[in-house]
Specification:
The complex is a heterotrimer of chains A (159), B (357) and C (384). By secondary structure, chain A is of the alpha+beta class. Chain A is built from six helices and five strands. Chain B is built from twelve helices and no strands. The chains are: A alpha+beta (159), B mainly alpha (357), C alpha+beta (384). Chains in contact: A-B, A-C, B-C.
């Protein structure tokens, strides 16, 4: 019986018709296209996008520079006596990140000891294209702070 | 419909009317109003339908629902640089696309999209009714192969030559089953003229797909192979080694090759409609006489669109045959089946007409 | 494959008669080609359509990963491992992290282990979906590509919710996991797992019984089991030839001892069998996912580990796991400093690529595309 069925299958091209049926059914299903730029896909909370720095929270421990797997964070700081509080404190001279090389791995964010973090990648920004290559070469301290992105999420808010 | 044409004749006067609908004007109308826009919109329809089958939308940015996309494509191809390889044979390089598109368009002069004069207005709904119409079609389809070989050779590129030869070999080997499959309905109709075949289907009250279903399948498969479409598109597949005979062509010349392929598709669909699905006849003329209100050409178009949809459907579903398996299929399966079909059709015809004693 | 239309000529006793001699052409299946899945270059000696010899040339994607490993401490190297087999990042991470833990003697808490297995099995499904997409489109069927990528999007969304990235995950650390599962992740994963089996049936309906697919893949690229063992081939290529070797069963790691699953085997060792093996593996991965989602315990996700991880001087370890393409292994030598002294990767694609010249002797060029597809190589791994 199964031999006859196999023979009929071969003659009647049933396997081909099954394939045709599947594609035909899929014609009427809902399409998954996202019409960018009218509709934008919203990344998840933990999405590792463009990083952002908050200089006030930063304690200049340089753990992020040490943790970076490709060594693209350049930090310079010096100690100064604050005239108002008469205490020695660290001031940030230079905090540059080479955006050409950054792979957005998040190890700098993980190493940062402040709470909430002073450098974070959960900014949901992934549209980093620009017309001029030199715009994105180095992103320095001031730009990092004024980057128009979402504010940081702390761990409690995420989890 | 007939009333409308009557009133047009009344307004224009007799000579002007017959001149307006002379074959020359019909050719111009057919080409510029009918075929060329149809071919360009067929490319658009393919992208859309293929996209819908693949869970995505096709082009939808240019114009509403992407309807101006073919126009954008034509504009782009027109302004592209017209390359000519240095060592190529110039006259052959220029001639090849014409040899592919030309026959495909010429075949339309014998395909009837409606009945003779008198049944649907005072016009013949075909350009000419050659009484060996079917032979004419098969012959012209064979000339199309020349374009491929010459195009592949003229490019002075060994991969183009190989691709062109493979494509030509494939097309020639599927010409034979195609021709043999067409003999089946021919025997039932008794005439080579295409208008005569449709009229025979009307007089015998059966569309030839029913008695000739085997011939129908063979013709359809051979037609897909003739136009180098999936699943028989190995010679022009991008993921294979050679990009086919049209590697060296760019701009409008490439567009002509491309249009030639789609024109071939439409030709096969039109011939299949005429021979197997009854041309311009409405279905079930006795059960549903109300359907005759829709004029013949619309029925013809609907049936041809069914075949064109089937072409796109096959492209979206099936993998590709390897070249030797393709030739196997053509020579070892299609031809014997077609010959058997002719034999049995003859037997049955003889038996029905009582010629056995 | 042995079609009467393509007769091999060559010098089989026909003498040096000019009419009977055919030239061999040397063809470059170049680094830029749509079907080589990356920058693989194959130098082919072709006689007409038949391949006589094949010589792969690799190195076009070499980035010095193994040297980069030596320059940074152990936990900083995890992003570099993502980028080797960029299609299956989680299994790369797991192999590296497992090796480091073996070297340091860290014990991973059970919850972290379950999360790792969840991610790895999701990654296995995702890698096989990509394999199916590219294999099918090379052979000519365009639609499975789009259907599989629709499912792959769901998996990548799950990854994104967990660790923030879709492709280069960086989701494991030596000792455990960096983040815990976010709220709602397990429900979303369950939704995916429940809806996935009908999709596999859809892909199978398009391809498995299709006579054109069978004609293209049955009998193509037959790998003899003994040859496979001699070359050191692992993964679905080995199991397609009938040898029952799956590291998750034979040398279990993480929590694979506590889940039930079957290992599919092929019979003939041809492309069709490997296709069936990989499809069945996707179903089994689905089964493992379901069990892990049910069995996952509460608890900590990171082991107690020293602040600065230094390895024992001259400690060396090899740890291999079953990745989607085969056995991926890390051989790490420590020298008492926070950086590894040497870190060598046993990349499965590199070893499986050895079989391609063997498999394509005597095949047509159209079959070569199918063979490269079934070997499932990712050039990031081959070249590192």
């Amino acid at each position: 019986m199964s031999a006859i069925k196999k023979f009929a299958d071969k003659i009647m091209l049933l396997d081909l018709f099954a394939g045709l049926g599947i594609t035909f059914k899929n014609m009427f299903k809902k399409k998954v296209t996202v019409q960018y730029p009218e509709e934008r896909w919203e990344p998840a909370h933990r999405f590792r996008g463009m990083f952002r720095l908050d200089e006030d929270r930063c304690i200049k421990c340089t753990i992020c520079a040490r943790d970076c797997p490709i060594d693209i964070i350049y930090i310079d700081w010096h100690q100064e006596v604050n005239p108002e509080t008469s205490k020695k404190e660290k001031l940030l001279d230079r905090f540059d990140i080479d955006v050409q090389r950054c792979m957005f791995c998040g190890l700098c964010e993980e190493g940062c000891p402040t709470e909430p973090k002073s450098i974070w990648l959960t900014t949901k920004t992934y549209e980093l294209a620009s017309y001029d290559r030199w715009d994105n070469l180095y992103v320095d301290m001031d730009e990092l702070q004024e980057w128009k992105t979402r504010p940081a999420y702390t761990d409690e808010e995420i989890a | 419909m007939a009333g409308l044409l009557e009133s047009v004749r009344h307004t224009l006067g007799d000579t002007l009317f017959y001149w307006a609908f002379s074959p020359a004007i019909k050719i111009v109308l057919l080409l510029f109003v009918g075929l060329l826009p149809l071919i360009s919109y067929l490319t658009f329809a393919e992208r859309k339908v293929l996209g819908y089958m693949q869970a995505r939308l096709g082009p939808n940015r240019v114009g509403p629902w992407g309807l101006l996309q073919p126009i954008a494509d034509v504009m782009k191809l027109l302004v592209k640089e017209d390359t000519l390889p240095i060592q190529a044979v110039k006259w052959a390089f220029i001639l090849a696309p014409g040899l592919v598109v030309g026959p495909a368009l010429i075949i339309f002069s014998v395909i009837p999209i409606g009945p003779r004069e008198g049944e649907l207005g005072h016009v013949n709904w075909f350009i000419t009714d050659v009484n060996t119409g079917l032979l004419f079609i098969v012959a012209l389809a064979t000339i199309g192969v020349y374009g491929l070989i010459i195009g592949g050779w003229a490019s002075n590129n060994k991969f183009s030559l190989m691709g062109g030869l493979r494509s030509a070999a494939q097309m020639i080997s599927y010409e034979v089953p195609q021709g043999l499959a067409l003999v089946g309905p021919l025997m039932l109709a008794g005439t080579l003229s295409l208008v005569g075949i449709v009229e025979a289907q009307r007089d015998q009250h059966v569309w030839y797909i029913l008695p000739q279903i085997v011939a129908f399948f063979i013709y359809l498969v051979a037609g897909v192979a003739e136009s180098n479409r999936n699943p028989f598109d190995l010679p022009e597949a991008e993921s294979e080694l050679v990009a086919g005979f049209h590697t060296e062509y760019s701009g409008m010349r490439f567009a002509l090759f491309f249009l030639g392929e789609y024109a071939n598709m439409i030709v096969v669909s039109a011939v299949a409609t005429t021979l197997f699905l009854g041309g311009w006849l409405p279905p079930f003329p006795h059960l549903l006489p109300g359907l005759a209100v829709i004029p013949g050409p619309i029925w013809f178009a609907l049936k041809a669109f069914v075949f064109l949809f089937a072409y796109i459907w096959f492209r979206g579903t099936f993998p590709r045959y390897r070249f030797d398996q393709l030739m196997d299929l053509g020579w070892k399966w299609m031809i014997p089946l077609a010959l058997l079909n002719i034999f049995f059709t003859g037997l049955i015809k003889l038996w029905v007409s009582g010629g056995f004693h | 494959m042995t079609s009467p239309f393509v007769q091999p000529f060559g010098d089989e006793g026909l003498g040096d008669n000019l009419l009977n001699r055919s030239e061999e052409m040397e063809l470059n299946f170049g680094p830029q080609h749509p079907s080589t899945h990356g920058v693989l270059r194959l130098k082919l000696k072709v006689d007409g359509e038949r391949i006589i010899d094949c010589y792969p040339i690799i190195g076009y994607l070499h980035r010095g990963t193994e040297k980069l490993f030596e320059l940074h401490p152990y936990f900083q190297n995890v992003p570099h491992t993502d980028r080797m087999d960029y299609v299956a990042a989680a299994t790369n991470n797991l192999a590296y992290v497992g090796a480091v833990e073996k070297l340091m003697g860290l014990v991973v808490p059970p919850r972290a282990s379950y999360i790792r297995v969840l991610l790895c099995e999701l990654q296995r499904i995702s890698s096989h979906l990509l394999w199916l997409a590219t294999h099918a489109i090379d052979i000519g069927a365009m639609t499975p590509f789009f259907y599989t990528f629709r499912e792959r999007e769901l998996i990548l969304d799950l990854f994104e919710e967990y660790c923030g990235a879709r492709l280069t995950l960086n989701c494991m650390r030596p000792g455990g996991m960096p983040h815990d599962l976010p709220v709602g992740w397990i429900e979303k994963c369950r939704v995916f797992v429940d809806g996935f089996l009908p999709r596999i049936d859809e892909y199978e309906g398009l391809l498995t019984e299709n006579r054109i697919w069978k004609k293209r893949t049955v009998g193509v690229g037959v790998l003899d089991p003994q040859v496979a063992i001699d070359y050191g081939i692992t993964g679905p290529m080995l199991r397609g030839s009938g040898i029952d070797w799956d590291m998750r069963k034979t040398m279990p790691y993480e929590v694979y001892r506590e889940v039930q699953f079957d290992v599919p085997l092929g019979k003939n060792g041809d492309t069709y069998d490997r296709y069936l093996v990989r499809m069945e593996e996707m179903r089994q991965s689905n089964r493992i996912l379901r069990q892990c989602l049910d069995q996952i315990p509460e608890g900590p996700i990171m082991a107690k580990r020293p602040r600065v991880m230094k390895a024992v001087k001259d400690g060396e370890v090899y740890h291999g796991i079953e990745g989607p393409k085969g056995e991926i292994g890390f051989y790490i030598v420590g020298d008492g400093t926070p950086n590894p002294y040497r870190c060598h990767v046993r990349a499965p694609s590199f070893i499986n690529l050895q079989s391609v010249p063997e498999l394509c002797k005597g095949a047509l060029i159209a079959d070569l595309v199918a063979i490269i597809g079934t070997t499932d190589i990712v050039l990031g791994e081959v070249d590192r």
